[in-house]
Protein backbone atom coordinates (compact mmCIF):
# COMPACT_ATOMS: atom_id res chain seq x y z
CA UNK A 1 0.00 0.00 0.00
CA UNK A 2 1.26 3.48 -0.94
CA UNK A 3 0.69 6.42 1.41
CA UNK A 4 1.46 10.02 0.41
CA UNK A 5 0.84 13.31 2.18
CA UNK A 6 -0.72 15.65 -0.41
CA UNK A 7 0.82 18.81 0.99
CA UNK A 8 3.23 21.24 -0.61
CA UNK A 9 5.73 20.75 2.24
CA UNK A 10 6.19 17.04 2.81
CA UNK A 11 8.93 17.51 5.38
CA UNK A 12 6.87 19.48 7.90
CA UNK A 13 3.51 17.89 8.66
CA UNK A 14 1.20 20.35 10.37
CA UNK A 15 -1.90 19.63 12.41
CA UNK A 16 -4.21 21.26 9.87
CA UNK A 17 -4.44 21.14 6.08
CA UNK A 18 -3.51 17.47 5.91
CA UNK A 19 -4.64 15.34 2.98
CA UNK A 20 -3.49 11.76 2.47
CA UNK A 21 -3.48 9.69 -0.71
CA UNK A 22 -3.80 5.90 -0.41
CA UNK A 23 -3.22 3.37 -3.17
CA UNK A 24 -3.42 -0.39 -2.88
CA UNK A 25 -0.52 -2.10 -4.59
CA UNK A 26 -2.60 -4.45 -6.76
CA UNK A 27 -5.05 -1.86 -8.14
CA UNK A 28 -4.80 1.44 -9.99
CA UNK A 29 -7.61 3.10 -8.00
CA UNK A 30 -6.56 5.76 -5.50
CA UNK A 31 -8.36 6.98 -2.38
CA UNK A 32 -7.99 10.42 -0.81
CA UNK A 33 -8.49 11.22 2.85
CA UNK A 34 -9.56 14.89 3.15
CA UNK A 35 -9.52 17.22 0.15
CA UNK A 36 -7.49 20.29 1.00
CA UNK A 37 -6.87 23.31 -1.21
CA UNK A 38 -4.71 22.34 -4.20
CA UNK A 39 -5.41 18.65 -3.68
CA UNK A 40 -5.76 17.85 -7.39
CA UNK A 41 -2.51 19.66 -8.24
CA UNK A 42 -0.67 17.70 -5.57
CA UNK A 43 -2.11 14.41 -6.83
CA UNK A 44 -0.76 15.10 -10.32
CA UNK A 45 2.65 16.27 -9.10
CA UNK A 46 2.97 13.05 -7.09
CA UNK A 47 2.67 11.10 -10.34
CA UNK A 48 -0.95 9.92 -10.11
CA UNK A 49 -3.96 10.49 -12.38
CA UNK A 50 -7.01 12.16 -10.88
CA UNK A 51 -9.26 10.03 -13.08
CA UNK A 52 -8.11 6.98 -11.07
CA UNK A 53 -9.65 8.54 -7.97
CA UNK A 54 -12.48 6.28 -6.78
CA UNK A 55 -13.07 7.31 -3.15
CA UNK A 56 -12.89 10.56 -1.15
CA UNK A 57 -13.16 10.35 2.64
CA UNK A 58 -13.71 13.50 4.71
CA UNK A 59 -13.07 13.46 8.44
CA UNK A 60 -15.12 16.63 9.06
CA UNK A 61 -16.60 19.65 7.29
CA UNK A 62 -13.87 22.00 8.46
CA UNK A 63 -12.84 24.35 5.67
CA UNK A 64 -9.32 22.91 5.69
CA UNK A 65 -10.70 19.48 4.82
CA UNK A 66 -13.13 20.42 2.03
CA UNK A 67 -11.66 23.55 0.41
CA UNK A 68 -10.44 21.61 -2.62
CA UNK A 69 -13.45 19.30 -3.01
CA UNK A 70 -15.59 21.28 -5.48
CA UNK A 71 -12.60 22.16 -7.63
CA UNK A 72 -11.56 18.50 -7.81
CA UNK A 73 -15.08 17.35 -8.71
CA UNK A 74 -15.30 20.03 -11.43
CA UNK A 75 -11.93 19.01 -12.87
CA UNK A 76 -13.08 15.39 -13.09
CA UNK A 77 -16.12 16.61 -15.01
CA UNK A 78 -13.98 18.67 -17.41
CA UNK A 79 -11.73 15.72 -18.33
CA UNK A 80 -14.81 13.72 -19.34
CA UNK A 81 -15.01 11.31 -16.44
CA UNK A 82 -17.82 8.75 -16.77
CA UNK A 83 -17.22 6.26 -13.97
CA UNK A 84 -18.83 6.85 -10.60
CA UNK A 85 -17.17 8.43 -7.56
CA UNK A 86 -17.83 7.56 -3.92
CA UNK A 87 -17.63 10.33 -1.33
CA UNK A 88 -17.76 9.63 2.41
CA UNK A 89 -18.44 12.39 4.91
CA UNK A 90 -20.69 13.80 7.66
CA UNK A 91 -24.42 14.12 7.01
CA UNK A 92 -24.32 17.86 6.18
CA UNK A 93 -21.93 17.25 3.28
CA UNK A 94 -24.86 16.82 0.88
CA UNK A 95 -26.02 20.40 1.56
CA UNK A 96 -22.53 21.71 0.86
CA UNK A 97 -22.40 19.88 -2.48
CA UNK A 98 -25.90 21.00 -3.48
CA UNK A 99 -25.14 24.66 -2.70
CA UNK A 100 -21.79 24.44 -4.49
CA UNK A 101 -23.43 23.13 -7.68
CA UNK A 102 -26.21 25.71 -7.43
CA UNK A 103 -24.02 28.79 -7.11
CA UNK A 104 -21.38 27.62 -9.59
CA UNK A 105 -24.02 26.50 -12.10
CA UNK A 106 -22.21 23.18 -12.46
CA UNK A 107 -23.63 19.73 -13.06
CA UNK A 108 -21.51 16.61 -13.03
CA UNK A 109 -21.77 14.12 -15.90
CA UNK A 110 -20.75 11.22 -13.67
CA UNK A 111 -22.52 9.66 -10.72
CA UNK A 112 -21.48 10.74 -7.22
CA UNK A 113 -22.51 8.38 -4.44
CA UNK A 114 -22.60 10.10 -1.07
CA UNK A 115 -22.08 7.86 1.97
CA UNK A 116 -22.93 9.27 5.41
CA UNK A 117 -20.28 8.37 7.96
CA UNK A 118 -21.35 6.40 10.99
CA UNK A 119 -19.44 4.43 13.59
CA UNK A 120 -18.60 1.01 12.19
CA UNK A 121 -17.48 -0.56 8.92
CA UNK A 122 -17.76 1.90 6.01
CA UNK A 123 -15.62 0.34 3.26
CA UNK A 124 -14.92 -3.29 2.45
CA UNK A 125 -13.26 -3.36 -0.97
CA UNK A 126 -10.30 -5.25 -2.43
CA UNK A 127 -9.76 -7.10 0.84
CA UNK A 128 -9.32 -3.78 2.67
CA UNK A 129 -11.66 -2.79 5.50
CA UNK A 130 -12.02 0.75 6.88
CA UNK A 131 -13.79 1.42 10.16
CA UNK A 132 -14.98 4.87 11.28
CA UNK A 133 -15.15 6.13 14.87
CA UNK A 134 -16.67 9.44 15.89
CA UNK A 135 -14.74 11.82 18.15
CA UNK A 136 -15.09 15.45 19.20
CA UNK A 137 -12.64 16.55 16.49
CA UNK A 138 -14.36 14.61 13.72
CA UNK A 139 -14.26 11.06 12.46
CA UNK A 140 -11.24 8.84 12.95
CA UNK A 141 -10.46 5.75 10.90
CA UNK A 142 -8.77 2.39 11.11
CA UNK A 143 -7.74 0.62 7.91
CA UNK A 144 -7.09 -3.12 8.13
CA UNK A 145 -5.61 -5.27 5.39
CA UNK A 146 -5.49 -9.03 6.08
CA UNK A 147 -2.55 -11.23 5.24
CA UNK A 148 -2.39 -12.04 1.53
CA UNK A 149 -1.51 -15.54 0.37
CA UNK A 150 1.54 -15.91 -1.84
CA UNK A 151 1.58 -16.95 -5.50
CA UNK A 152 1.03 -20.65 -6.10
CA UNK A 153 3.80 -22.27 -8.15
CA UNK A 154 1.79 -24.21 -10.72
CA UNK A 155 4.82 -25.65 -12.53
CA UNK A 156 6.27 -26.95 -9.27
CA UNK A 157 2.95 -28.61 -8.43
CA UNK A 158 2.89 -30.35 -11.81
CA UNK A 159 6.44 -31.57 -11.27
CA UNK A 160 5.13 -33.32 -8.15
CA UNK A 161 2.41 -34.96 -10.30
CA UNK A 162 -0.41 -33.05 -8.62
CA UNK A 163 -3.59 -32.99 -10.68
CA UNK A 164 -5.53 -29.67 -10.75
CA UNK A 165 -8.34 -29.65 -8.23
CA UNK A 166 -9.51 -28.35 -4.84
CA UNK A 167 -6.20 -29.37 -3.30
CA UNK A 168 -4.51 -26.48 -5.13
CA UNK A 169 -6.49 -23.95 -3.08
CA UNK A 170 -5.60 -25.66 0.19
CA UNK A 171 -1.93 -25.91 -0.72
CA UNK A 172 -1.90 -22.19 -1.54
CA UNK A 173 -3.09 -21.54 2.02
CA UNK A 174 -0.14 -23.52 3.37
CA UNK A 175 -1.98 -26.72 4.25
CA UNK A 176 0.15 -29.88 4.43
CA UNK A 177 -0.97 -33.31 3.18
CA UNK A 178 0.25 -36.70 4.38
CA UNK A 179 0.13 -39.12 1.45
CA UNK A 180 -0.56 -42.88 1.85
CA UNK A 181 3.11 -43.72 1.25
CA UNK A 182 4.14 -41.47 4.14
CA UNK A 183 5.36 -38.57 2.00
CA UNK A 184 4.46 -35.13 3.35
CA UNK A 185 3.41 -32.51 0.84
CA UNK A 186 3.95 -29.07 2.34
CA UNK A 187 1.92 -26.23 0.83
CA UNK A 188 4.44 -23.63 2.06
CA UNK A 189 7.07 -25.01 -0.32
CA UNK A 190 4.71 -24.59 -3.28
CA UNK A 191 3.89 -20.90 -2.74
CA UNK A 192 5.80 -17.67 -2.49
CA UNK A 193 6.03 -15.80 0.79
CA UNK A 194 2.77 -14.38 2.10
CA UNK A 195 2.31 -10.62 2.27
CA UNK A 196 1.83 -9.53 5.86
CA UNK A 197 -1.34 -7.71 6.86
CA UNK A 198 -1.31 -4.14 8.10
CA UNK A 199 -3.26 -1.79 10.34
CA UNK A 200 -3.35 1.95 9.70
CA UNK A 201 -4.81 4.33 12.29
CA UNK A 202 -5.88 7.84 11.24
CA UNK A 203 -6.60 10.04 14.26
CA UNK A 204 -8.04 13.55 14.37
CA UNK A 205 -7.18 14.12 18.02
CA UNK A 206 -3.53 14.27 19.13
CA UNK A 207 -4.43 14.23 22.85
CA UNK A 208 -4.37 11.02 24.83
CA UNK A 209 -7.72 9.34 25.41
CA UNK A 210 -8.80 5.78 26.03
CA UNK A 211 -10.48 5.33 22.65
CA UNK A 212 -7.39 6.53 20.77
CA UNK A 213 -5.06 4.27 22.74
CA UNK A 214 -7.29 1.26 22.05
CA UNK A 215 -7.55 2.09 18.35
CA UNK A 216 -3.81 2.43 17.72
CA UNK A 217 -2.77 -0.63 19.74
CA UNK A 218 -0.93 -3.20 17.60
CA UNK A 219 -1.05 -0.86 14.60
CA UNK A 220 1.66 -0.48 11.96
CA UNK A 221 1.18 3.17 10.96
CA UNK A 222 -0.26 6.18 12.78
CA UNK A 223 -1.43 9.30 10.94
CA UNK A 224 -2.55 12.49 12.70
CA UNK A 225 -5.09 14.44 10.61
TrEMBL record:
Coiled coil regions in record: none
Gene encoding the protein: rnz
UniProt KW Chloroplast keyword: yes
Keywords: Chloroplast, Plastid
Keyword presence, Chloroplast: yes
Protein name listed in UniProt: Ribonuclease Z
MF GO annotations: 3'-tRNA processing endoribonuclease activity
Amino acid sequence: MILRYLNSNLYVVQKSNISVLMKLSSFKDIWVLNCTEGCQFNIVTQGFKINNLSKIILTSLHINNISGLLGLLSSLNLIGRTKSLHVYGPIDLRYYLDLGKKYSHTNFNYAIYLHILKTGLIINHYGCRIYAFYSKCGFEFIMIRPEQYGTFFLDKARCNYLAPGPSYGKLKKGVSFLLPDGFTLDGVSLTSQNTMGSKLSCLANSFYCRKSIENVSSGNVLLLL
